[in-house]
Design brief:
single chain, alpha+beta, Glutaredoxin, 4 domains, five-stranded mixed sheet, about 40% helix, globular
Length: about 475
């Protein structure tokens, strides 16, 4: 396995989540002076300071030119740093637009064969549901390429990046370019670490969220090159070694006979980092100890079509006997003006408030039972009592919470969604593994992640 693939395995980067947050402010817009209001023009605004943006952006522009009839429109390719591109972007900044590169269209492009072809091509391409955003005087394409935060007139934010020559840093730079305004990255090679990032404390903390096997030392983000020696019972040795090596950590294995409670010990110079791979483990100055107390934490993000995931979680929570912890997140989306929208409308609002009240008063296991019963009943206010009784939660407490805490709960999830950028039903396991329940089975993933998986849900699941 190459170092590049190893590091790719340990890095969890949800670029789509970050693009959603950066584009939440992407609204409004004025036609600059000197620009024709009825010119049927497509403006391609490039950013030559974003090295990782150029190729994907140019490929997307070529995709448009190859799939849409451009004979009835004018395509103007320019930079946000000069000429008409600079003027357009300066006016868009008045409406809080803050990411580049961009593709804009004058409003009179709508109704042309180009606009019809573009919609069709984007629909067939798939991806984000709403690809064309309507501004006041423009249409804009939601970025489906890497972007960079840019504020004219503001100083540059310097970032120094050191990386092993075999590490692809494009995904890391995608995070950096959206972590602050006007980021400029200077790159150097290092042999001692996979990655080092020298930047402001805010940027370092942001990047650390996407590198679970990293640490911050003296204000610098470090992704060190690690080795480990595994001392393990025979039945767990290969599973522990496999997990370490999937994360890019070479491991030597020695078989030992521990008691029934201890599964393995991992000797390493970086016990605090290695422990992140084994939730519930205990780490000491010289290593990590795995016991039968190992657990997994699942952050569940709920929008449309969440019932199958809730059913599977309900089964797992009852079978795993406390080994799985669940944190629910109810998704809130935002329209072009930044106004929050709750998926499912009034029904979605009742589900959010009532079910979270059940979670606060009953815990994860009773929360899934309540949610399934509440939705099966029709998710009306009259269903609260029935669902609470089915889940064995105090009815009065849930009703009181529902009537008195709705505003606080909605506000909490508005902020939660703004931070996460998650827009569809999914689960994040142990803070880094993203699971799409449409294509993955959560029990299967959990059983492979746990060194000592619960037999009740993992019989027959291949480790």
């Amino acid at each position: 396995m190459s170092k590049n693939k190893n590091v790719s395995g340990i890095v969890f980067v949800v670029i789509g989540f970050i693009l959603g947050l950066a584009f939440a402010a992407y609204f409004g817009g004025h036609v600059p002076s000197g620009v024709e209001k009825s010119s049927k023009t497509v403006y391609v605004l490039s950013d030559e300071k974003c090295d990782i943006c150029s190729a994907p952006f140019e490929q997307f522009v070529s995709f448009i030119e190859n799939n849409a009839d451009t004979s009835g429109v004018r395509i103007v390719k320019t930079s946000v740093y000069r000429g008409i591109g600079k003027e357009i972007y300066a006016r868009l900044r008045e409406e809080n637009v803050n990411v580049v590169p961009l593709i804009l269209m004058t409003k009179d492009v709508k109704g042309t064969k180009f606009f019809e072809d573009l919609n069709k091509a984007l629909s067939q391409r798939g991806g984000i549901r709403t690809n064309i955003i309507e501004l006041r005087n423009y249409y804009a394409l939601r970025p489906l390429w890497p972007t960079r935060r840019y504020v004219p007139g503001k100083g540059e934010t310097k970032v120094t990046l050191y990386a092993d020559k075999n590490v692809n840093v494009d995904r890391l730079k995608s995070i950096l370019y959206l972590a602050a305004d006007n980021v400029i990255v200077t790159e150097h090679e290092t042999n001692d670490y996979y990655i080092l990032v020298e930047a402001t404390p805010e940027i370092v903390k942001t990047v650390a969220q996407y590198y679970p096997l990293s640490r911050i030392a003296d204000g610098v983000l470090e992704v060190p090159k690690m080795r480990a020696t595994v001392l393990s019972r025979p039945d767990f040795a290969e599973a522990v070694k496999a997990r370490l090596e999937r994360a890019g950590i070479p491991a030597d294995v020695n078989i030992v006979q521990y008691g029934e409670y201890v599964l393995a010990k991992i000797v390493t110079d970086y016990p605090d980092i290695v422990a992140e791979l084994f939730p519930g483990s205990k780490y000491y100055p010289d290593g990590v100890v795995l016991t039968r107390d190992e657990t997994a934490t699942v952050d569940v993000y709920l929008a449309e079509n969440a019932e199958p995931l809730l059913e599977e979680l309900n089964r797992i929570l009852y079978a795993a006997d406390g080994r799985i912890t669940v944190n629910p997140h109810y998704i809130v989306r935002f329209d072009a003006s930044g106004k929050p929208i709750i998926p499912g409308g009034d029904t979605g609002l009742r589900e959010m408030v009532a079910e979270y009240c059940a979670y606060l008063n009953g815990g994860p296991m009773k929360w899934t039972s309540f949610a399934l019963s509440f939705r099966e009943c029709g998710a009306t206010e009259s269903c609260i009592e029935t669902a609470a009784e089915d889940a064995n939660i105090n009815v009065d407490r849930v009703k009181t919470c529902y009537s008195s805490s709705a505003n606080q709960i909605v506000s909490f999830f508005v902020q939660d969604s703004a931070r996460s950028g998650v827009g569809q039903t999914l689960a994040i396991i142990n803070g880094w593994y993203v699971l799409d329940p449409r294509i993955q089975d959560i029990a299967n993933v959990l059983c492979k992640m746990l060194s000592f998986p619960p037999k009740e849900i993992c019989e027959g699941v291949r480790a």
